[in-house]
Amino acid sequence: MMSHPSKNLSDSLTLPNGSTLINRIGKSAMSESLSDTYHNPTENLICLYRKFAEGQTGLIITGNVMVDYQSLERARNIVFGKYSDHNKLKEWAQVSQVNGVQAWVQVSHPGRQVAKHINKKPIAPSKVAAVKKLNAFAKPRALTIEEIQDIQKEFVEACVVAKDAGFKGVQLHAAHGYLISQFLSPLSNLRQDDWGGSVENRARFLIEIIRAVREKVGSSFSIGIKINSSDFKRGGFSEEDSLETMSLLDKELLDLIEISGGTYESSAMLEGNEKAKEKAFFIDFAERARGVTQVPLMVTGGFRNKKQMQEAIDSGCIDLIGLARPLAYDPFITKKILSSETEELPAPKVKVGKGLRGLGEAAWYTRQMYHHARGEGAKDNIKIVPCLLRHFTSDVIRAKTRKGRK
Ligand SMILES: Cc1cc2nc3c(=O)[nH]c(=O)nc-3n(C[C@H](O)[C@H](O)[C@H](O)COP(=O)(O)O)c2cc1C
């Protein structure tokens, strides 16, 4: 178990690479869809991150940034690659890192988990379609070994772009059913070569990326990952697989592991699992994870008041509390919690039918980020059905107007 000099939410946290986070609260990634047509940051994105940084959340992890212009998750994702506008990226890094706040870039590739209107020909470890019951996802083609290595290089290049822009670290997105997570899961990875089969083989894609990134960025730049405790799908990436993967990762030069769970097929990241009705999600799993890794742990999902957050830190298993929706609603909530201006995190009632809960909440909170990005405040009176419709129709329209790059 890590020994901490003290265990308050306001205490700093020193990471294995020697870098220090000013407090124990982290903003978890939230896809913003606020790029321009060339996938560079807009003024609205900059405005949003200025607020996140002023809110004094110790670690700000950006929404998922893609590594390939042809493989997007949404039509207006930021992409870090050869067409990046470096001045804009520098500005983004700068406004996000004031008064000791650090910002890390979440680096991701969607693989097969992408709607058809964005990508009709997705790629994946194997030819297995995502979310079969929704007919919204095209069946992917299995990657060749050469293509796997090319994508690994794209991850490394994107991390170097992040470092050059001035961000203090990166987080590799290995959770929620995107490409790295597809490699980890035995349901989406049926490969019989070195990238499939045992946990060690399924983790190879991720571990090789971590090593290659570390070689390029040096020892003081932070590298973290976000990983599922489980996919919550029978036969998928299980808690045992996750623990085995973490013990392999313990030998790598990693600075933070964020624990989450689920995929588009089971939105545990937003809803928790059966056991977590009353408390924040994945807490019990974090206790098990603490037993297999020395890397600092951030747990994200379901924190709704200061007491829960402090208790999680007091457990000694969790080093950093991850918040997403509360910060989308109020980017200044960390400051308010730390100064005891409030003990409660915002938890507005978003009325969504059971089957649509994950999608509905994602759309509703994305809309709240748009309000902040436009210099406005959160709005409670957003109805879920028009919000969902707008979320998808705007993405379809934007997919048509994006500038194809290769
Ligand atoms: C609008 C929205 C967008 C999200 N986008 C991402 C993302 O890009 N990457 C990611 O790892 N998780 C993403 N998530 C999941 C959050 O990071 C987090 O794991 C989840 O919301 C649970 O935390 P919370 O209960 O504090 O909201 C997103 C969540 C929301 C609400």
Brief synopsis:
With 406 residues, this protein is α/β, with parallel strands linked by helices. The chain has 14 helices and 13 strands. The strands form three sheets. The chain has an eight-stranded parallel barrel with strand order 3-4-6-9-10-11-12-13, surrounded by four helices. The chain has a two-stranded antiparallel ribbon with strand order 1-2.
Describe the structure.
- This protein is an alpha/beta fold and 406 residues long.
- The protein has one domain (13-347): TIM Barrel (Alpha-Beta Barrel), CATH 3.20.20.
- The protein has 14 helices and 13 strands.
- The protein has helices at 43-54, 86-96, 145-165, 179-184, 199-202, 204-217, 239-249, 268-271, 283-290, 306-314, 325-329, 333-338, 357-373, 384-401, and strands at 13-14, 20-21, 25-27, 59-61, 65-66, 102-108, 123-124, 141-142, 169-174, 222-228, 256-260, 297-300, 320-323.
- The strands form 3 sheets. It has an 8-stranded parallel beta barrel with strand order 3-4-6-9-10-11-12-13, surrounded by 4 helices. Strands 1-2 form a two-stranded antiparallel sheet. A two-stranded parallel sheet has the order 7-8.
- β5, α2 and β6 form a beta-alpha-beta unit.
- The chain is globular, with a radius of gyration of 19 Å.
- 49% of the residues are buried.
- The site of flavin mononucleotide (FMN) has 26 residues, from α8, α11 and α13.
Indicate the percent of residues in helices.
Answer: 25-40%
The count of domains is 1
Q: What is the class in the CATH system?
A: Alpha Beta
CATH architecture term = Alpha-Beta Barrel
Our measurement of the CA-to-CA distance between the termini, rounded to an integer number of angstroms, reads 46 Å
Q: Strands across the major sheet, in which order?
A: 3-4-6-9-10-11-12-13
Low-pLDDT segments, ≥5 res:
none
Structural class: alpha/beta
Major sheet size, sense and barrel closure: 8 strands, parallel, barrel
Structural shape: globular
